[in-house]
Amino acid sequence: MPYGLYGMLKKMEQSTDINKSAKSVESDMDTNFANEIAELCYSKYMNLPKTGKPKEGREWTHVAGIVVADGWQRRSDRSSNVPKYVVALGTGSKCIGKSKMSPTGDILNDSHAEVMARRGFLRYLYDQVLMTYQTGSSEIFKCFSGGKCVVKNNITFHFFTSHVPCGDASIIPKVPFSENDVGLCLKCGTEQSVQCHARHSTCLCVSAPTEHLNCNFSRGNAASEMAVQTMQGEECNVSRQANCNKRKCCNIEWCDEENDSKYMKANSSAGRANMCSGKERSVMNNNVQRPEVPVSGDIYRTGAKCLPFQSLQDSHLPGAYYHVVGALRTKPGRGEPTQSLSCSDKFARWNVVGLQGALLSLLLNEPLYFQSVIVGGGGPFSEMSLKRAIIDRLIYQPNGRKNSSEDKEMDRGSSLSEGLSLPSKYGVHYPLILQSTLPFKHAPMPNGVKQPCASSIVWCKVPQR
């Protein structure tokens, strides 16, 4: 082999090793940072009084917290030298039904840990704003020339939760796929379509989670698992993969071997999934490529129910097709249904309008966003599921089209913001999504022997109690 070619190959090999080493170092930094945030929240929880905590060995609860970091920078050194401290903490897993809601607003409807932590964070922000107006500065704010408070340089906010948020983010594959299953992930082409007739004027494609395929889909195809298309007319094209049955796959529309096989169809008015023949099949948008998924998979299910007025509804079919992804949901509740949106939906809202709320928006120069979302260890977790719940479904429309460009870290003035008539300072944020390896001491057990704690705790870093 010529020396020049040999030298080139050696340089390429060294470059590959360097890239792998850099990724490994970055992964270690992410894990260390996530563990440090988790440990801060766990430590603060353990230092709180016993009142409101679950009974040892008999009850469980969730914990969430908001951490302030001074000098933290994304994708850089996240060592323990950067000052970090917990400013708000919440526990709980309860949400009341409609009949128990108070018309005067003196009863808390939602006592999930994430919501309780955010309430404590608002109390902390009010205290910081008051201090800023009184003294000209506080821990996190300084006075802006326009009379509003502005966050100090290098101050960042990080949201920790001991579990994945309820709702869309908790729809996670149970069995991860191996590298040998990557070949099963096929994409349908428009040239491989067949003609079919539609008897019904409206059909909806109900998608299933695809993040468990271990396939590195491009961002352009990230909308494929959320695409829902309404079909009207007598004829339509259905994309079909010729070797689908040979690889034992089925696509999102529940394809089978023959043209007259059954497909999944969702009735938007009844909110239930029916089975229709080949002549009644729903179709997908030819402009959006949708990956096929193996039939044998299963998912962790959520008790959160889809809002009845939206087109996206759960099919309740076996396995991975039980839930639809990307839908707005109400919090799960035993007995009477709740009226509160799931934590996934509230996270998505905070990721656009900020954590500060409407009143504080009048006193702050810019909205406050969390720079990272960290989930505790020991439970189900999927970065793709959480990203879909708080980012992707804000960027992609139900038909799979993008609202705006994803290339920027912050999308200013996206079509989402325009549709809501939001000022330009609001937009879809891109927090870092991590999981800690540290489990929560009072987390629920897989065997279900513990009961949920009926009490909740909210704590915040303020001098007055």
TrEMBL record:
Residues 88-433 form the A to I editase domain. Its cofactor is 1D-myo-inositol hexakisphosphate. Keywords: Hydrolase, Metal-binding, tRNA processing, Zinc. InterPro entries: A_deamin. Pfam families: A_deamin (PF02137). One of its GO terms (biological process) is tRNA processing. One of its GO terms (molecular function) is metal ion binding. Belongs to the ADAT1 family. Specifically deaminates adenosine-37 to inosine in tRNA-Ala. This is tRNA-specific adenosine deaminase 1.
